[in-house]
Amino acid sequence: MNDTAQIFEQGEYNFAYLDEQTKRMIRRAILKGIAIPGYQVPFASREMPMPYGWGTGGVQVTAAILGKDDCLKMIDQGSDDTTNAVSLRGFFEKTAGVRTTYETSEASVIQTRHRIPEKALREDQIIVFQVPIPEPLRFLEPRETETRKMHALEDYGLMHVKLYEDIAKNGHIATTYAYPVKVNDRYVMDPSPTPKFDNPKIDQMAALQLYGAGREKRIYAIPPYTKVKSLDFEDYPFEVQKFDKPCGLCGAENVYLDEVILDDKGGRMFVCSDSDYCEERRADGHLGPMAADPAAHQFGATQAEETAR
Amino acid sequence: MPVRLYLNNVGKSFTMHLQGGTVIPVVEKVEFSVNAGECVVLGGPSGAGKSSILKMIYGNYRCDEGQILVTAGDEIVNIAGAEPRKVLSLREDTIGYVSQFLRTIPRVSAEDVVAEPLIAQGTSEEEGVDKARSLLSRLNVPERLWTLPPATFSGGEQQRVNIARGFIAHYPILLLDEPTASLDAANRAVVVRLVEEKKTHGVAMVGILHDQDVREQIADRIIDVTGFSAEAAA
Amino acid sequence: MNAFPSTDPLLQVHNVTRYYGDRIGCADVSFDLWPGEVLAIVGESGSGKTTLLNCLSTRLAPTAGAIEYRMRDGTMRNLYQLTEAERRLLMRTDWGFVHQNAAEGLRMNVSAGANVGERLMAVGERHYGNIRSTADDWLGRVEIESDRIDDDPRSFSGGMRQRLQIARNLVTRPRLVFMDEPTGGLDVSVQARLLDLLRRLVADLGLSVVIVTHDLAVARLLSHRIMVMRHGNVIESGLTDQVLDDPREPYTQLLVSSILQV
């Protein structure tokens, strides 16, 4: 616990910033979301001391579920030490004083933007997603009144129109992130802008998944061990991205990789997007093909910096 | 021979609302019947109501009074009071109409125009078009025109296409509205033969024919409609 | 073969009335529509024909009256007692609606193929290849070249858009199609082509159609039966050629005599 985290005990902030009435309201929304997997529950999203787009939805969900004994991990695009993750971790250290960690297995609550850890989550963990646009039908149907009716009536033909267009224009389903899923054979849901590589992880996941959209004032959830099916066509089945190389640093295969530019002469490498996973593997003695490269060595020592997608 | 068509006390007048509600009487107390295999020709000067009678039988004009009974299969239908869909169904399988004027349909070829009524009665498309071609050929429509839409044909060619269309299908009742007007002698002879063929098939026909020669050749009976003139009766 | 088998009516309309406040939209309209029948509703602007069409197609609830429809399972259902789910299913499978303005009936920002395929996907078709070949087949039937299948309707001419809208509606083999001035706003030559296409599709598929038009030539070419509306009331109805060749009501006589003879 650092110095600033003491502040909450001095009475300046309530625990985890939000007042207890607000937390209760949010917990109700969460419970309703869990009861109706994939259904977007409206909630009275509060002003947070950070701009919309920084994860205000996720922060409110986390604040509502956090207890003093929890251990919090913050991820931004797989990394624990990029701006968003650092800021939000600092926010909770300051307002809740909870223990924080980089290690996936140590955390009881993981708030994430755009990734799911490579290491399988457990039943005693909760993962909170930051969601910019919760409505998967929004780009096809701008009217909220209509999208609500479509959800109510399971009128989801339009989702496949989007996938059809993808195949017609690109020869394959080119949607690579925010790839729509059907939860528990009922609601079509936007799994937030995670790469579709992570979609198989949310199917039958042991951990509870909570999704918060602050600007759009929606919360939704997937209870543990729930069926989550990525939408597709019979002749164009859902597929995740494949990488033809292992991670340059730890040699991991079948993980989501980020491209890292090493110099201005075209040098580049691919490394695990999940920095904690990569570090743990290297600590266990796994070495990737570029682990010996001086540039990579220097880079690996200072943690993989996430690059723009 | 059995009676196919029976007009009983039929009357018709037009009310011209755009001309101050003037009522123009047309015919009154029309009564005649037509047997199978018989061709009845309506006589009388123009304006006497021949065409109106024909159109009432076809359901094209309303019948204000009386009954127009036709035998359709096992039932007797009164056209004067029949529902639109009943009239349409009779036009498909019971009553045919050969008129002077072809209402052309864009982009449909002459042979398809001719074959349509036969195909509608259940004949295969192939057989229908075959029969259409043979009729067009009998009526001396040049072969190069068969696959073209008739909209651009000459008046005589259009008329012959329509005659072929009128004669192609089997209707127990056939209405002939000046089928030979403006035809040359050779084609008139073809029409006479077509009518004779229909007679042998037991078709009951009602016609309007101004052509004296043709009338004499095909008419079994001539009914003078001036006897039904509304004014005469009044 | 008979195009008018003596089956039961497909649609039964009983005393349908729609008020807009104190004003009458349409009043006390009743009729039956049989399978394979094309009914034209004619009249000038403001006569209530579009109001009636919207009432029939469940787009506008009538103030009074009932509309019954024979579902595919043969049961007669009151349209305004259907659940929203049943109504939507009906509208995207057993019914079609062709708008005067094609942009209202199409998704202008997705390809022609997806426009046609949408109804198939909505009823659960999940095989891309099948959806695409069905869409291609239907584009062919409405005379749109195969190589336009991936183009947006925004790049289509007015006539093509209208033909695409028709394909999009007919792909699920509906039994009843509503049309609101389908040839309105098109060039005469484009109109003629569209009418001919409609005439053939309607006959080939045995469709029942309720078509609203102010153009008596369209009514004559497409419809079996006609209803003339004025001031919200049906003033004359019957066989199309009978009403047009032997009009009885003063207003109908005026309408018929107003046609320009070319």
UniProtKB/TrEMBL annotation, chain A:
Gene Ontology BP term (one): organic phosphonate catabolic process
Reactions performed catalytically: alpha-D-ribose 1-methylphosphonate 5-phosphate + AH2 + S-adenosyl-L-methionine = alpha-D-ribose 1,2-cyclic phosphate 5-phosphate + methane + 5'-deoxyadenosine + L-methionine + A + H(+)
Residue ranges crossing the lipid bilayer per the database entry: none
Pfam families per UniProt: PhnJ
Name under which the protein is recorded: Alpha-D-ribose 1-methylphosphonate 5-phosphate C-P lyase
Stated family: Belongs to the PhnJ family.
E.C. no: 4.7.1.1
Chain intervals with Polar residues compositional bias: 300-309
Keyword annotations: 4Fe-4S, Iron, Iron-sulfur, Lyase, Metal-binding, S-adenosyl-L-methionine
GO molecular function, one term: 4 iron, 4 sulfur cluster binding
Provenance organism: Roseibium aggregatum
Domain of life of the native organism: Bacteria
Role description: Catalyzes the breakage of the C-P bond in alpha-D-ribose 1-methylphosphonate 5-phosphate (PRPn) forming alpha-D-ribose.
Span list, region Disordered: 289-309
